[in-house]
Structure formats: structure tokens, C-alpha cells
């Protein structure tokens, strides 16, 4: 089982080609005069692309990323990239794996990670097919990723027991960890609840049904992006792999929609961070492989019951507005921590790192 220290290093010729493509970007005509009404505003995109091509200092961003300890390990026969921060606590910290979602990366967790090392050993893997982690040989499922993470934490890193935190895809992986490996998990903590789809034995209550109807209505308005990635991922990937402007537009459309930013993207995501994430996707040519979890989504199955201690710090994003506690309680028999702070969206660890640190300490502290 090979573990190697890893350093991010993008070749000069890759950066030169990127800047040249950015400078030659062609822009579309707005479909609606209302700002962002029809997707990414072409005027804002022009401003961001100009910054990426001219003012953004990738080497400085690269140095900031490399200040964290990066590794790649052979896990389940594939390369997995992760950041591993050891606790300063005497005797070591409680192991904690933090898992991001889409269209995200390990960068999402870097603001909160240093706030946790007083008590925790923090492991931040890149999901399979994202950036520096290889796709699995089989279909990409939340369960399969949980099995990889369990091997990473217990066999590669040698932790007997650990906690897990995540949202979006990472929330699904986190819940599968709790369901599959109760002997290894001290607890699971999510920011976006993965709901049971089985209401055969206990029908949805009126409150639950009202939320499910709300979610269906929201998905009908929002799911255009996912429909193409479910059905024709290689078609859109061909465009985004060739156009860095298209790539960053595809990413920031969801950053703005799903963040708790009141429509002001840079309230939560400064230009340097946006360009850092986009450069990572560009340099690794991984936007297409990040779509695999959408194309393979039908291979996922409902999460089994979770008996380990569980926590929800509910994301403040439209998809989860009004989600009743009773829905995650259907899945988690020991839901010990339920919090609706009213701040922080889909990317809560990046948007509200101090809040997430407090929530993690409040839940996992008594368990460790």
C-alpha cells in the first residue's frame, strides 16, 4: 500500500496555454436583461475571465495550497489524493474525514480545517474523478466511495475509529460510512440530509409531504444542469474541457445559486478562490470525470438505517428550506444534534468556517 507526499505543480506551458485561451474568449449575448436571470451574466463572466487571464497569480495560489500537507495513496487499486492535517493535541486528535461535493473540491474544506486541529486529525480526500483522484474501475456510487474512504482511514492511515462530515455527495458518502461501518464510525455529520425514499411502511406526514413537494418544485426549476450530466456528460464535457471560460461559467453558476450569498457571488467567493478552483479543474482535465457521479447516479441505492450517532447542521439553501427533522430521523435512529443556523449554503465549510467548526466541536467533542 503506497503513500507518497504530493505537491501541486502546474507546468508553465499549461498556464501559458490557459491564458492564451482566456484572452481569445468569445462571449454570448445576454438572453435576459435582468442580472443573472438566464444563467451566468456575460458581463460578469467577461470581468472574471479578464482577471483570470491577467491579474490572477496562480503561483501564489499554488504556494498557498502546498502549505497544506498533500498525499496520494493507492486505495482499492486507484490513486486517491488527500490533505492530512495532524492535530496539535498531545497524544493525537480524533480522526475526522471531511468530504466535499460537486462542483467543489478539497479547497472547500481548507478554511475550516485549521480550526479543527486543536482536537482533530483532519483528512480531506478528493472524490474519485475529481482533480488528483482517479476514477474507480466500477461505477461511481456513494456507497463505493464510502468503502474507499473506510479503507483509506483504517488501512492506509491506521485509524481504528473516526468521524465523518460532509455535504452534497460528501453527505451521501458520510451517511453510507455510518450505515456500512458502525464499528469504525464514532459519528456522522451532514449539512444536506440524504432522504429515505422508502415510505411504504410509514407514509409521509403532512409536514414531510409538503417539504417533498417543495423539493420537487425546486428541482424542476434547477435541474437543467444535472439532466445533461446524467444523460450526455461527454457532450458538455467536450465544450468545458476546451474552453476555460465555459468551464468557470459552469462552476460559478452553481456557486452563486447554491451559496448563501444573496445573489452576490463574491460575498462568499472572491475572484482568487474562483480562479484557483477553476485552474485546478483545468490543469487536471477533470471536469468531465467529475460528471461520472451524475451519469452513474442510477447505480446508487437508498442509504440503509444508520445506528451510529448522527448530526445535521442544515444548509441554508433553497433545496432544504423547510426540511423537517423527522425526515433524517427516519434514517438515523440516534440523531443527537439538529441545528438550523440559518447561515451557510451548499458549500458551508467554505462559506461559514467558524460556524462549521463550532458545530463539529459540539457534536464530535463529547464522542471523542
Summarize the structure.
42% of the residues lie in helices and 14% in strands. It is of the alpha/beta class.
- The end-to-end span amounts to 28 Å
H-E order: EHHHEEEEHEHEHHHHHHHEHEHH
Number of domains: 1
Strand composition percent? 5-15%
Strand order within the widest beta sheet: 1-2-3-5-4-6-7-8-9
Low-confidence stretches: none
The residue-averaged pLDDT reads 95
Q: Indicate the percent of residues in helices.
A: 40-55%
* Radius of gyration, CA atoms, in whole angstroms: 20 Å
CATH topology: Rossmann fold
CATH superfamily: Alpha/Beta hydrolase fold, catalytic domain
Q: How would you classify the helix and strand content by structural class?
A: alpha/beta
- CATH architectural label: 3-Layer(aba) Sandwich
Shape: globular
Number of H- or I-type helical stretches: 15
Number of strands: 9
Largest sheet: 9 strands, mixed
Would you kindly provide a written description of the structure presented here, covering whatever features stand out?
There is one protein chain. This protein is an alpha/beta fold and 368 residues long. The chain has one domain: Alpha/Beta hydrolase fold, catalytic domain (Rossmann fold). The protein has helices at 12-23, 42-54, 58-66, 142-156, 169-180, 206-222, 224-231, 233-242, 244-258, 271-284, 287-290, 292-295, 326-331, 348-351, 353-364, and strands spanning 3-6, 70-75, 78-85, 94-99, 120-125, 162-166, 185-190, 310-313, 335-339. Strands 1-2-3-5-4-6-7-8-9 form a nine-stranded mixed β-sheet, with helices on both faces. A hairpin with a 2-residue loop joins strand 2 (70-75) and strand 3. Helix 8 packs across helix 9. It is globular and about 55 Å long. Residues 4-109 form the Epoxide hydrolase N-terminal domain. This is Epoxide hydrolase family protein.
Amino acid at each position: 500500500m503506497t503513500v507518497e507526499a504530493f505537491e501541486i505543480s502546474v507546468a508553465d506551458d499549461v498556464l501559458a496555454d490557459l491564458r492564451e485561451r482566456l484572452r481569445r474568449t468569445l462571449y454570448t449575448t445576454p438572453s435576459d436583461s435582468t442580472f443573472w436571470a438566464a444563467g451566468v451574466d456575460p458581463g460578469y463572466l467577461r470581468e472574471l475571465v479578464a482577471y483570470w487571464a491577467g491579474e490572477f497569480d496562480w503561483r501564489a495560489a499554488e504556494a498557498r495550497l502546498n502549505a497544506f500537507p498533500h498525499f496520494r495513496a493507492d486505495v482499492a487499486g486507484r490513486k486517491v489524493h488527500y490533505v492530512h492535517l495532524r492535530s496539535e493535541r498531545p497524544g493525537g486528535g480524533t480522526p475526522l474525514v471531511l468530504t466535499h461535493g460537486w462542483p467543489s473540491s478539497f479547497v472547500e474544506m481548507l478554511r475550516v480545517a485549521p480550526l479543527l486541529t486543536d482536537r482533530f486529525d483532519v483528512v480531506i480526500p478528493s472524490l474519485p474523478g475529481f482533480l488528483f483522484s482517479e476514477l474507480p474501475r466500477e461505477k461511481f456510487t456513494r456507497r463505493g466511495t464510502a468503502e474507499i474512504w473506510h479503507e483509506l482511514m483504517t488501512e492506509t492511515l491506521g485509524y481504528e475509529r473516526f468521524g465523518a462530515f460532509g455535504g452534497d455527495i460528501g453527505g451521501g458518502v458520510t451517511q453510507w460510512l455510518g450505515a456500512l461501518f458502525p464499528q469504525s464510525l464514532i459519528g456522522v455529520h451532514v449539512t444536506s440530509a440524504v432522504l429515505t425514499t422508502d415510505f411504504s411502511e410509514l407514509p409521509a406526514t403532512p409536514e414531510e409531504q409538503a417539504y417533498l413537494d417543495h423539493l420537487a418544485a425546486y428541482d424542476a426549476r434547477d435541474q437543467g444542469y444535472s439532466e445533461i450530466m446524467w444523460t450526455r456528460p461527454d457532450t458538455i464535457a467536450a465544450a468545458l474541457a476546451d474552453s476555460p471560460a465555459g468551464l468557470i461559467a459552469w462552476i460559478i453558476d452553481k456557486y452563486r445559486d447554491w451559496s448563501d450569498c444573496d445573489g452576490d457571488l463574491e460575498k462568499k467567493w472572491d475572484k482568487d478562490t474562483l480562479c484557483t478552483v477553476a485552474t485546478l479543474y483545468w490543469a487536471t482535465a477533470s471536469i468531465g470525470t467529475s460528471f461520472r457521479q451524475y451519469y452513474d447516479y442510477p447505480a446508487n441505492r437508498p442509504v440503509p438505517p444508520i445506528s451510529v450517532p448522527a448530526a445535521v447542521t442544515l444548509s441554508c439553501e433553497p433545496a432544504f428550506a423547510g426540511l423537517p427533522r423527522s425526515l433524517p430521523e427516519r434514517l438515523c435512529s440516534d440523531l443527537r444534534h439538529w441545528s438550523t443556523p440559518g447561515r451557510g449554503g451548499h458549500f458551508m465549510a467554505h462559506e461559514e468556517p467558524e460556524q462549521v467548526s463550532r458545530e463539529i466541536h459540539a457534536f464530535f467533542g463529547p464522542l471523542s
